[in-house]
Design a protein that fits this description.
Helix content: 25-40%
Largest sheet: 9 strands, mixed
Radius of gyration: 27 Å
Order of helices and strands: EHEEHEHEHEEEEEHEHEHHEHEHHHHHE
Oligomer: single chain
Bound molecules: adenosine-5'-triphosphate, magnesium ion
Distance between the termini: 30 Å
Shape: elongated
Structural class: alpha/beta
Length: 394
């Protein structure tokens, strides 16, 4: 019964002079998400409103789920748009709407009218009262409840009259592409895909770096990370993924440094290399899935030592989240099932039984001195041999 959707957005509305930039990005992103949905769609801006209009048959469920992946949208309202042909016609239209939208007519309701066009001959209050009465007449099993109605019937008098009564939640956030780029350190775990999703939700375009250690890590571990990037790309758009061969660096650190410091030193080199690609890609920051205290390398002492190698800000959206809350988001964005596949990523293979949990930066730097210039060569080789893959949504 619906040929259009009214798109509600919140924070964009407060962006002042730049508002049109955000709205244009939102429109473009909606068009992009709808490209793969069966149907013909037109996305239209009108006085601080965005409408998606359909032509002919379309897949309603697919349309809604595509819109639920567009950051910036807070609500998706299936809407009936009718011409203003006088109040009697409006009554007929609203009754037809209620009749079609609610097969079971036992419900309480309230009519909520807004006039964006003040030249309408009745006030909002008058329209509410008159429409309420007509609905009660047409459907005697309905009841008015002005405080907690089961159904809120919105009638908005705009160039066209909008009739709607449901609002499906969108993902919220800001339109993708309105906040610059950031480099996600993406592993095969549960956390980093969620971290990427969260930052991307604020409008940030993602790029990603993955470190693997063949032959210690398998081709399937790499494929798993590509699959995760595909899942995140459903929301975040195409992701440029850098796959860095980290084997020789890991082996060399393993040979030269105390094994309980291995993870922390490795993580410092990961950050350095990721920052190289971040600079190359004009990123404004890096993103990790770290959370205080989750593992030895994520105590505040460890985070400080890891962070010390970076010039760029490092965004850690999960920093204060509990694992279960992270898992809930992973399930929502459908990365969880992929993340829990068993293939090892590079960190897990060389980890010591008892890694340092309170590393001291001076000691770590002293240990790193044992690495000599050879480490610089290895880093350069790792960068030069990095494979870059453009990952699209699956
Ligand atoms: P995740 O579930 O994201 O793998 P984790 O709990 O396993 O996180 P760590 O392995 O300590 O934690 O990794 C912390 C963060 O470092 C990850 O969230 C990710 O951002 C980054 N990271 C870890 N391993 C890799 C890797 N192999 N490639 C790229 N980034 C990595
Ligand atoms: Mg991990």
């Amino acid at each position: 019964m619906y040929k259009a959707f009214l798109i509600k957005y919140a924070e964009i509305a407060i962006k002042g002079k730049n508002r049109y930039l955000f709205e244009n990005a939102l429109v473009k992103n909606i068009e992009y998400q709808l490209k793969n949905v069966e149907g013909t769609f037109t996305v239209r801006k009108e006085n601080g409103r965005v409408y998606v209009e359909t032509e002919g048959d379309y897949d309603y469920d697919e349309t809604v789920s595509a819109l639920q992946r567009v950051f910036g949208i807070v609500g998706i309202c299936p809407v009936v748009l009718v011409e203003d042909n006088g109040f009697d016609q409006l009554v007929a239209d609203v009754i037809a709407y209620v009749n079609a939208a609610y097969p079971d007519k036992h419900f309480t309701f309230k009519v909520d009218t807004r006039r964006a066009r003040k030249n309408y001959p009745m006030t909002s209050m008058e329209i509410n009262a008159a429409l309420g009465e007509k609905i009660l007449e047409a459907f005697p099993n309905t009841k008015v409840d002005v405080h907690h109605p089961q159904v809120m019937i919105h009638v908005e008098i705009r160039p066209m009259i909008n009739i709607y009564s449901t609002e499906i939640p969108g993902p919220g956030g800001m339109p993708l592409g309105t906040a610059g780029r950031a480099m996600l350190l993406l592993s095969g775990g549960i956390d980093s895909p969620v971290a990427g999703y969260m930052i991307s939700k604020r409008g940030v375009t993602l790029e990603a770096t993955y470190f693997h250690a063949p032959p210690y890590t398998s081709e399937r571990a790499k494929q798993k990370v590509i699959d995760l990037a595909k899942k995140v790309a459903r929301y975040a758009g195409t992701i440029k993924l850098h796959v860095v061969n980290f084997t020789d660096i890991q082996l060399y650190i393993y040979e030269k440094c105390p094994h309980d410091e291995l993870t922390i030193i490795m993580r410092r080199y990961m950050m350095k290399i990721a920052e190289h690609f971040a600079n190359e890609g004009k990123c404004l920051g890096m993103i990790t899935g770290e959370s205080i205290g989750q593992v030895a390398s994520q105590t505040m002492q460890s985070l400080a030592v890891t962070n010390e190698v970076c010039q760029m800000p490092v965004y850690r959206p999960l920093i204060a989240m509990d694992k279960q809350d992270i898992v809930t988001i992973a399930e929502k964005i459908d990365t969880y099932e992929t993340s829990i596949l068993p293939y090892e990523d590079c960190c897990t293979i060389f980890v010591a039984k008892h890694p340092v949990t309170k590393p001291n930066l001076n000691y770590i730097k002293k240990s790193e001195l044992k690495l000599s210039e050879k480490i610089e060569e290895l880093v350069k080789t790792a960068i030069d041999t990095t494979e870059t893959i453009l990952v699209d949504a699956e």
